[in-house]
Structures are given as structure tokens and as C-alpha cells.
Amino acid sequence: MHPIWNIPELLAQILLFLDEKSDILRCALVCRSLSVEAARLIWKEVSAFRHLLGCFPYNTIATEMAGPNDSPSRTFLFLELPDTAEWDHMRFRASMVKELTLPSSDNYDALLEVIKRHKIDLTFPELVSLHLHVLVPKRLQTFLPLFASSKLQDLEITFEGYNERLINSALAILLVQAHQLRSLEVVATSLPETSQNHLSQIIETTPTINYLRLGLKTSHGENIVVAASRLPNLQDLSLEFMDYSGIRTEYTSGFPSLLSLETWSTFASTLAVVRAISSPKMAVFRLHIIDEIVVPPRGLCESMATMSNLKSVSFIFHRSRRPQWEDMEPLLACPLISTFLVTVSSPGFEIDDEVISAISRAWPNLTRLWLDGLEPTPKRFRRPTLRGLAGLLCGCPKLQEVILEVDARARQLRGTPVNTASATPGPHGKLSLNVRRSRIAEKSEVSISEYLMSVWPGECHGVQLAEQTSSKGGQVIPVLDKLDSSDVEDRRWACAAVSSLIQNDASTRRLLQAKGVVDKLITRLSDTDDDVIAEAAGNLAVDGGYDMCAHMFNKNVLAPLKAFIPKITATLQEFLSASPPKNPKGLKRRVYQFSENVITLFWCLSETSNKALAAINDANLTPFLMAFLISRDKIPLKTVLAAAQCLYVLSDDNDPTARIIRKTQAYISCLLGIVKSTESDGSTESSNGMVIDKPSDSEQRTTLKNISPLPPMGPTLTDDLEKTVTLPLLVSLLDYSSQNAAIRVQDLVTAEALQESTKVLKGCVNDSIPKPDHKTDTEIELESIEGQLRTLTLALEILTGSDLDEEVIEETDMDDEDNEDEVIEEDQPERTTAPPSSQANSLSLIATLTRPLLSLAHPTPLSFPQSSAAPIHPPTTSALGTIHVRALECLNNLFLGIHTEQVQLPEGAARQATEVWRDVWSVLAAVGKQGEWTVGSAVELRKEMWDTGVGVLWGLARIGKGELIPDAEQVSALIEFCDGTNEEMIKVKCIGTLGCLAQRSDAVDANKVIGSYLFSYLTAPLTNNLMPWPEATLHAASSIIDIYADEDQPYDVNFRQAGWTDVLAGAKDRVKRAGRGIDKKKEGGRELKDFADDVYANVKGFVQYRRKLKI
Q1: Quick one: what percent of the chain has pLDDT higher than 90?
Q2: Residue by residue, what is the 3-state secondary structure of 933-945?
């Protein structure tokens, strides 16, 4: 074995990466060197003392079980006394335990008696945390001496039952042991007076306690609270006095360092403790009042109002109806309050707009406001109006949750423009708004929502949002009711109406989902009427995103879908036979459209989860899908494309489908035939100048890649398929003008509207006469443009998934393989960059794609609907929005895929990045800033474009680092967007971009702005001591080190003048804490944990380096 494995510190660090004890146990069985360090981790935390008994032979210990099976009580007995070696093994385990729990269901009395009688030396020298949950009849006083030599810092002890002698003995032992505790929790059914004295002495003689929890009778705990009030370091106090036996109404002033108080007690006890607090740092109150108070609680609030640092207040009056807002009013004197929650057993607080206005003025940092009651509200009840709520939203831009009784009647808004209340400048986060028990008429929803959203430009979430932002909210309930109708005509009408409501309207789709439309549509898949089934399948096939597909899978949508496969297959065989049946009333068209919807559902569900994919694999869809491709010349293009897309998804990293295709020669021949047909026949060109490939060609190229390697079948096209075939085709598809397409759609729609208005004026329109089924030339051209846009979307999606960023690495590896026989000198440094030809090819491809992608990313006049009216052609608007996002995603993958640390960029790359940088900002300027977005103007699409665009900017900034000129307006926009987003990965991209901009040598002023902002992540006060953005904090620290690594740069004067060396030194603990907050079990968690460790080490080293410079 290599000597490195004999270094215990190194082994311990390596083993810490294992999350499961079972994995650590396997390491312990590998060899002796690993076993010792692995054992320390295995026995570091023991959830029950009985696990330690496993070191004894199985015939040494007997276990008697009693009680219910789900929570049995165990009694442990010695059948024979273990020998010396077995006791040594037990001591070895005990010496490694740092946290131990004794559950109340286990009885060790007999074992402890043997240990005591035979004077067995058993201790826990490394024990830090002990949790004792025991019934007092047990011999706890025999158990406690085992921990005399422990290094206890956290002690939790629970006495269940009544036995004064045993409780007194236990606390007397703890008093003698005199552990230097930091945390102490004592819960007892009854605590004798002697034990009360012992516990008070323990508290008085342990000044290190900073957290104390007492769960006692009120009369038993009052004297102990007196002792606790004198603790110099007590920061967090929790009192659970759940009875009415208290007699004390006053305590002497104390609690000098208290930060947080939580109580479950009577009003008198709570008031006495609050009045005794002298700490100037008191910040958090969580008060549960368990009795019915007879006096107004204003005095309690007046005592709390003297604490200037108060930030969070929570009241719950479990049995009291008396509290009103007038009692809470003194707390308006505390300007730092960010959380204010009150729940009373009455209907709630009667407040008006004046109170709401006072709240918004007094608490500008408010994030949560909860004024709620537990009883129904009477009709005559004073409530704030919508204007008052709007004033609250304007005055408190950091709000995240509001639960409030509001008089939400639209007539309040008459005569007032929507934008009367202007939003407070600055970022607005997500808002959960619950307008409790408000009576809102359906016709009033739109005006109310527009009013509220005009004063809150941030994100809302919850069912209320859908009701507010959807222009069709009033039509939803009648439609849903008719879906369950016994009349088949009603069900047909309802399914058709759902299709009309959800088409290209995301907000209405969310509202329908919230009202349970998915469950109803899945039920309709088993309807007795074919038209209802077809309409239901079409509605479910509308892309509802991951959540909707997951919900459909959980509701067993696969059962009816699988039942359709043999029916569709049989019908398809009839249509393709030598003597096909007649086609009454467009039967073929309806069957093919239904088949397309079913295939689309399988496609979407397969991307939902591994469980859904496994269920679809069991259905064996491959023959079903290949039948459409084999007969592609006789089946409509859309249906074939759906089958091709589904097959592509199912073959991607999914061995069951790939194996079936690989084993069937007819399937491979079909796929190769599709690819070859494009090369031999060429492509077809649309009327708008867009090159459209053969049906399903792009998918089959990628499908062939998914199932490679193919069995030997002679010469094939699979060699370097992506580079030689797929990419050239996809690049050719990008030569399409979305701007021209939008203009053409505008012209067509305008001309069609003009024709309709002319007919109306001439009296040629009769609504009673059904319209003909055939489509006009305008409708046909509009569908053609829509099809081109969808094809372009698909090409962008495939291009986004291509391994463009791996080209340099792959070619480097090939070069290394070719030269592996060459003799390499020992002193020759290892080459870490790709060869010039490889770099040139990769960067040439990027240069080829950048301009077309930027053109497609730029919004058109039809990309975003106007808030005042619906889009003139919703399908085009929807498709254009998707194209813009996909184009930005391609650019994001291209530029972020260039590893600037590994690839030597050619001369001029930074200059080219600067040009593209300006174009990307032009795209984002056309999208608009978040504060400029209005209701109905595709807010979600605009946000998604900004999210992706920031990633493109980061990739460009890394290429042009040091060359890009940091424009003040752009820096401000990045900071504003970073503060406004609640997605940490977006914050990381913004921080990375800013970090690169700050490295421009002559941009001293911009460097100061960016540096100050990055340091804010390391110095901003934490709310409730929580680390909000750990990954962003780590990247901010890393960027600071990169920026100021060279002390000779002109902008380094900012670092020295601001004294940022000392600031960074003081932030080391926050950086370390950010690393600890990373969950290694999540995807990418291990890599992020490594990054966190590197950042922490770099911060420490950088601080030492800067201090040595003494500048």
C-alpha cells in the first residue's frame, strides 16, 4: 500500500465525501489503514445507545420487546458477562462517539447494574452532544457517571413521569460533573423543588450557556428563569410553560445578551419575562399566549417597543379575542421590523387604509406581514381597501408574503388610472399574496389585478396570480363544470373551450391547472365519445412544463395512453393497406392528429423523470414510432415529425430503446435512408426563403448518434455524423429572417382584417351561415410561416444540445493519441492547450453561428404582446418568443463552453467579443428592464431572455476580460438585475460578469462600484442569521481575489483606500459558512463543495499576502 494512506488526516478528509454510513462501512472493511478513520466517522453520531451493544456476541445480550409494533419498548439484559476483549471493543467504540441519543423506549437498567457492580470502566471521552429521553423510573443516576469525563457542550434531558428521588439524584450528578455547556434543554413532567435548586445552580455555575430551553410547569420554572436572567452569554431562550400555575408577575432586570425569545405560556408570565429583558441586541420575539387575556396587551407591546434592534415579531393568541391593532400600535416605533405575524382566535384585526399607511411608513424593510384571525369575518368589518394594499406594496418593496383581509371591490378604482400608484424604484422579489375572504366578482378580476400588478412589478406566485393575470379567468369555472356533464354535447363543447382558453395563454393555462383541469381531462381520455377523447388528448398535449407532466404521470395518464397504441396501429394499417377504407368527414386527418397528440404526450412524459421513462420503456413504443417513419411518404409531415422527436428523446441515453433499434436492421436502414435522402435530393425552400430539411431528418441524425455504435452494415454515415452532416444542416437553417417573418405576418393579418371589415360594411357577412371548411390563401401562408418558425425552433433546440464546446477537447485527445509513441523528454512541460488548427476550427464555428443567432435573438414587433390588447397572431408571437430564448441559449452554450483557462485564444478574440457584447446588450435593451414590464406583455418570456442573456454576457466577459469597457449604465443594470432575481445561478452569472468587467485597468471608478457591490455579499447583515445565497457569496469572494490579485493595477487604489483587506479577513467565517451550507447530495454538490474549499483557502492566503505587502 502506498505510504500516503498512512496519513490519518488525509484519510479523514477523503472519507468525509461519503454521505451514507453504508459506504463508509465498506471502506472500513477494505484494509486496516482505512478501518480506523472510517470507524471514527461511523461512530461519530449514534442515534441509540443499543447500537453500541453490537460489539458483544449475539448470545451475550437478550432483548425483551413490549408494546405496539410501530413503537416497541425494549429491555436489554446480560445473559453472560462479556470478557475483557469484548469490553475493550466497547470502550473503543465509546471513545469515538461525539453525539449520543438515548430514546425513551429503551431500558438499560439491568445492563447498568452489571456495569456498576463489576466496576466496568466505560466512558465517552470525546462526547460533545447528549440527548437523554428517559422514563424517570429508570436508573438514570447510574447511567450519568459514564459521561463524567466527557467534553459535553450540548445537553438535552427529558424526564417523563414522577419519581422525585431519581430526578434529584440525576441533577445532583450533573451539578457535580460541571460540564461547560453551550446548549441546555430540560423538559420534565414534574420537577421537584430540590431538582429546581440543582438546575438553578447548574445554570448559575455555567456561564458558557448561550441557548436554554425549559419545558416545565410554570411554578417549577419561575425560579430557574431568575437564574437564567443572570447568564452573561445567553442569546436564545425558549420557555414552554404550558399550564396556569405561575404566581410570579415580575422579574428583576437581566438577560444582558439575549437575542431571541420564544414562549408558550400565559400572558402574565410572558409579560414578566419581556419586561425583565435588558439586552440592547434583542431582535426576535415568538410569543404564544395560551390563556384568555383579560386586559389589553398594549403594555406588552410598549415594553417590546423600547428595543430599538427589534426585527421580527410573532404573536399567536390561542384563546383570546381581545387583541386589536391599537394594542400593537406601539411597535411602529421599531423601524427595523421585517417580519410581523399576528394570529388571534377572533375574526382578526379591524384596520383601515390609515393603519396600512402607517405600517408602510414605519417598516420600510418589511418582508412578511400576516394579520389573520381564526374565525369567519362578519359583514360589518373594517378592512383596508385596494388603495391601501397598493400603498403597502409601494412603501415596502421587499415584501415576500402578505396575508391580509382586504375589501377588494373594483368600484374603488373608478376614475383612477391604473398606474396612479407608482412603484418604488429598485428590485422587487416574489410576492405571495393572500387576500383573505375577499369577495371579488369575476368581471372585476382583470381591473383589480392590473391595479395591483402596476404597483408591484416583481413576481407573484400562487393561484391568485393566475386569477389576476389571466384575461379569461371568468370563463374557467363554467367550462370545468361542463367537463363532467352527462350530456356528450356539453363535454364536447367544454373540451373545445379548454383548447381555446389555453392556446398561447400561459396565465390561463396556470389557472386551469390550479382548478384541476388536468385530472378532468385525464378522466375524459376514457370517455365513450371519440371526439371528446381526441379533444382531451389535444389539450393535454399542450406544453405545460415539467410540473404538469409530473402531475399527469402521478394521475396514471399512461394507462389510457397505452390502450390507444393497438387501436392507432390497427387504424394505421387499414389506411396504409392496398384497399384503404373511405374517408368520411376527414377521418384520416382526425386520426393522424390524434396520433400526433398521443405521441407528443409520450414524448413529454419521457422527459419528466426516470420513473416515467421506465414505465414508457415497458410499453415498448419503438415499433409503434418506427411504423410512422417507415411509412413517412404516406403520412402527414407533422405526425411523422412528432414520432421522430419522440424516438430521438427515447433513444437519448436510454439503453432499452437504443438496443431495440440496434438489433433491428429494418429500423437502422430506415433511419439511414432518411439521412441519405437529404444528401441526394437536397432540401426544399419555402416561400419566405427558409431552407427546410426533409421530414424528421435532423432528429434521425441525432438518433443515429444516440444508438451508436451501429452493427456492421457496410459503409454508413455515422462516422463523425454530427460534424459532417448534422451541424452543416442546422447552420443552414439559421439563415432565416425572423424580422421579415413578423412583418409578413403583420401584413397578412392586416389585409385579412381589412377584407373582413369591407365585407361587414357591404353586408356580406351572415353569422348564421357556417363558414366553409377550406382555408383561405392567407390562412395557408400563416400556417406555413408558423411551420417554418417551429422547424427553426427545433433546429435551435438540437443545436443547443450539440457538443460544440467539446470539440477542442476531443481534437486535443486525438492528437495526443497520434503522438503517444513519440519519446517525450522529462523536462518538457505538459501541453495543456489545444493545437492551433483545433482552436481555429472551433472558433471559426463560433464565428459562423454568432451572427445568425444574434439576429434570431433580437425581438421583433410581434415578439411581445402589448398589455392593452391580445397578440394579432398568437401562434407567431408564441413561436417567436421561443426562438429568441433558444437562440440565446445556443449563444450561452457556445461562449460558456470556451474554457479560457485551458484554450489559448487567438489574437483578436477579445476584440470580437467586444463587438458581440454590444449586440447582446442591444437585444436586452429591446427586451426592456424589469421595472418597465407591464401586465400582459410576456413578463415571463422577458425574464427568461434576461436570465439567458446574462449567461451569454458572462461567457463574453471571460473572453474579453481586461478589454471590455465597463459602461456605467450596463454595470448598474447588471447589479439591479442581480438584486432582483431570486435564482442563485443567475446571481452567480451576474457576479461573474461584473468580476470580469472590473479587471479593466483604466476603469477605476467602475472598479470601485463593482468592488463595493461584491463586498456587500460578504458584509451585508444576515436576516435571522441565515445565509441566503451561499454559492453567490463564494463567487463574489473568488471574483474579489481575481480582481485584486495584481496590486500594481491602477484600480488597486480602491482596495487599499477602502481597507478591504481587513474586510475580507473579517469575512472568512462567512465564506467558510457558505461552504458548509452546500448540500453534497445534490447534483454538482461535490464539485461546488471543492470550489468552496478552494475559495476559503484562497481567501486566507490572499489576506496573508496583502498584509505582507503592507500597502
Answers
A1: 13
A2: CCCCCCHHHHHHH
Asked whether the beta carbons of 154 and 181 are under 8 A apart, the reply is yes
**Separation in Å, CA 220 to CA 176, 189, 240, 241, 270:** 22, 10, 11, 9, 15
CA 798/CA 235 separation, integer angstroms: 57
Residue 70's pLDDT band (cuts 50, 70, 90): low
All residues at 6 or more sequence positions from 250 whose CB lies less than 8 Å from its CB, including other chains: 272, 275, 276
Q: Please work out, in degrees rounded to the nearest 5, the angle formed at the alpha carbon of residue 254 by the alpha carbons of 251 and 259.
A: 115
Buried b (16+ CB within 10 A) or exposed e, 268-298: bbbbbbbbbbebeebbbbbbbbbbebeeebb
> What local confidence, expressed as pLDDT, does residue 815 receive?
39
Q: Which residue is associated with the grid cell 450557556? A: 209
User: What pLDDT was estimated at residue 230?
Assistant: 93
Peptide bond into 1030 cis (omega under 30): no
- 3-class DSSP state of 571: helix
Q: What is the 3-state secondary structure (H, E, C) of 985-1019?
A: HHHHHHHHHHHHHCCCCCCHHHHHHHHHHHHHHHH
Confidence (pTM): 0.49
CA 809 to CA 866: how far, in whole Å? 46
Residue with cell 390588447: 869
CA 1083, chain centre distance (Å) = 12
For 53-99, the DSSP string reads: GGGS-TTTEEEEEES-SSS-EEEEEESS---HHHHHHHHHHHTT-SE
pLDDT, one tens digit per residue, over 165-214 is: 888 888 888 888 888 899 999 988 888 899 899 999 999 999 999 999 99
Q: Give residue-wise pLDDT tens across range 375-386.
A: 666 655 677 877
Chain mean pLDDT for the chain? 77
Judged against a pLDDT cut of 80, whether residue 1092 lies above it is answered with yes
Say which residues have a Cβ less than 8 Å from residue 9's Cβ, sequence separation at least 6. Answer: none
- Alpha carbons 644 and 795: distance in angstroms, whole number: 13
Over 70: is that where the pLDDT of 750 sits?
A: yes
Tell me the three state secondary structure of residue 171.
helix
Cell representation of residue 718:
455515422
**All cell numbers assigned to 1087:** 464539485
* Distance of alpha carbon 282 from the chain centroid: 32
